[in-house]
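Board notes (copied after class):
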Amino acid sequence: MRAENGEQLQQELYEGDNFTVQFKEQQRWGNNYKAEFILTNTGDTVIKNWRLQFDSFDTYTQIWNAQIESNIDGTYIIKNMDYNSNINPGDSVSFGVIAQYEGIVISPDYFELLGSLNAVSNDKYVITPSIQNEWDTGCILELEIKNVSDSLIEEWQLDFNCLSEIESVWNAEIFEGTTNSYTVTSKSYNRNIKPDSSVTIGMKLKGDYTGVSYPSGFVLSDNSVDFDIFEKGELLNKLSQNGYYYYFEYNENGEMTKLSVNEQPIFEGKYKDNQLVEMRYSNGEIITYSYYDGEALSCEINGKKAYEWKYDEDGELSEIVDYLNDITYTYSEKELDDNIIETTSINDGFSLSISEEELGTKIIYEYGDEKKYSLDYIVDAENQAIKSLLDGTKIYQNISENQSEDTIKKGNEKISSRIVTYEDGIINKSIYHDGTELEYFYDDKGNIIQINKNGQIEVTYKYTENDQLLRENN
């Protein structure tokens, strides 16, 4: 096929490790072209949750059957849609683009398949077989896969050997590979295994006159984020995650001066007297900051003033000017009848005032001349805090040393309530009016590491040695 100007349309085939990508230019006009990418699984295992990385000189203005996850200086990462996330052995998925180009059309010459499966370490899971029913030449077998680690197992896949024929499987998908080898993969409803949780799959085995041979040689893989952490002293200087490599550089004071992804610079930072004075991004944007006596004065983007901070004679912040959005924030404090009134106002008519009065705190939120919201925060004789809103809603709060209880009422109607308990000043449990119970767990440094909902793990967190959050597993 040829373009409108008679030039040959591009068609290229790239062969990778257990996959191929075919680039097919279908149409060309002006400085635009339409092309199709065909990703084929040439291996013997399922490609799950595929993501494709490659370099292109062109700008993709439209895409279908896939989505652009990122584009950093021409390095594209294309991600699957939910309906085509998995590719069985021998199958293909395709996606199309409309692109703008300059000069000549050059097809990508290298592709990297990201998000491929990683083997799960043997100490992170336990597989327990159990026979549910058995007869001379067959049986019903269940396999329990239990996550005994503190990390989520995502989009799992189990490979094993079995001499007997597997007639059917439930709670999983099955693919037969080479002789006597099988692969089972998760269903949509059991694809993630939370820490200390398990999934169970069942299968019907058919033996012969010698009996039944059971599965063996289990290897579990998943698509969870694979972190490799390299630290220099207390600073994180390299992190790998599913094919991405993040590099961090610091000055002698431990301030980050450079971030690169796959050796492509993202930004560089400069400091003076321990304060950030310049940020240079890979897209050419330059952000500079000025200070006086340790306080920020202004911020410029590409030489144009973007923000300005102003202070009163006592050194307190009095005004922030946002030149980008033409907004000015004004802060003031005055004393009236022995009460301190703090006011924040914006040049569009918004204002928020907070005053400490004899019975408690009063907060008034106004827009122009209209009072939108008012809250009176008082403490009664029984040491119960009461917040009163404009619409008649009242929030009652009882606080003791290790517990607080919030109740929201409108008139005599109870809308909601929550009881929070503390230990050493840190929240450890919340109980809501509908019976929902949340428990919070922390490490020795006070970092939250796990939240349970009604006794089941809801989310976990992992940190580096210097308390940087690495992963949140839902």
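Comment from the instructor: The mean pLDDT is 82. The first strand starts at residue 11 and ends at 15.
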